[in-house]
Amino acid sequence: MNMSTESNAFNVRSYRAHEQMYQSKLASDEGRRIVDSWHRQDTVNAWILNRELASIDPFLSVHPTRSWLTVADGRFGSEGQYIRARAAPVMVTDIADNLLIEAKRMGLIDAYQKENAEHLSFADESFDYALCVQAYHHFPRPSLAVYEMLRVVREAMILIEPNDCRAPRSLKDETVFLARMLLTKLAFRAGLRGWTRGLPSEHDYPWADSYEPVGNYVYKVSERELQKVALGLDLPALAVRRFNIFYEKGVEFEKEEPGNDCFERIRRIIDETDAAARRGIIDWGVRAIVIFKRAPAAALTQALTAAGYRVVALPRNPYAKSGPPQP
């Protein structure tokens, strides 16, 4: 079997496994209970998701009527619900549509479509924005999904993903890396579990390689990786927001309310992690990375900056219009 055939066969198996994942959860009472918690808005889990989705608030406030595409949004279209609640038009998509069918019937979303993120069926520039949250790292060929999202938008695409751990490249970097590994263990033993989200472990050395039970390699993202995508396509700008979240089993069933032990613990861990990241002790655990197809106007740039983004104007390719020199 040649490499191309083998790769394609694995992709198909991966797509099928992810498509069947929700169906397998629905097969048991406990799985159904977990799935049903996903469309509740009063849980700690919803609070964590909303902390991530606050990353798109500047876009929704400055351009409230622009259209959106959510990608790999199969949990009742959670991201689409967030956008819809702010009155923006949104098309919700996922490789599996069983929970999207339910969400539409329940009135949680307006429009959905079954889509493979690596092969979107929409025409070029069908939407203003595309959003993909905590899903890129599940795709078997995530770079294709990035190019597809860029193809179908007019303005920008937004990825919200765990940050990749940079491999040491010098003696200084390696020393810092090993020191942070030690801090990971000390923080964990001290009960500061949130700190470990921004610290590497021995499994991250020299690269963070891991696989999930459903069968995919875990692709974490880096700012530099996506900056190169933008530079290669001669796109005008990139914006990055760095922040932290913390998840633990059971947050789907805990109420987001003062005095709830789980909620208070999660908030305390995030506060501790934020404080350590601001001091440079650890790296921020999550990135919201925006690749712009059109340079953002001043109002949007100001809103993004106020929300904690760093907006970077990228150098343009001086040969893009004239083409390569003739022999």
Give an overview of the whole structure:
With 327 residues, the chain is α/β, with parallel strands linked by helices. It has a domain at 3-164 and 209-245 and 285-313: Vaccinia Virus protein VP39 (Rossmann fold), CATH 3.40.50. Helices cover 40% and strands 15% of the residues. The chain contains eleven helices and eight strands.
List keywords for this structure.
327 residues, alpha/beta, Rossmann fold, eight-stranded mixed beta sheet, 8 strands, 40% helix, disordered N terminus
Quick structural overview:
The chain has 327 residues and is α/β, with parallel strands linked by helices. It has a domain of 228 residues: Rossmann fold.
What is the highest CATH level, the class of one domain? Alpha Beta
Task: Just name the CATH architecture of one domain.
Answer: 3-Layer(aba) Sandwich
- Side by side, the strands of the main sheet go 3-2-1-4-5-7-6-8
> Which ranges are low-confidence, i.e. pLDDT below 50, for 5 or more consecutive residues?
1-6, 200-207
Count of distinct strands: 8
Mean pLDDT: 86
Overall helicity: 25-40%
Distance between the termini: 40 Å
> Count of helices?
11
The description of the largest β-sheet is:
8 strands, mixed
Q: Report strand %.
A: 5-15%
What structural class results from the helix and strand content?
Answer: alpha/beta
CATH superfamily annotation of one domain: Vaccinia Virus protein VP39
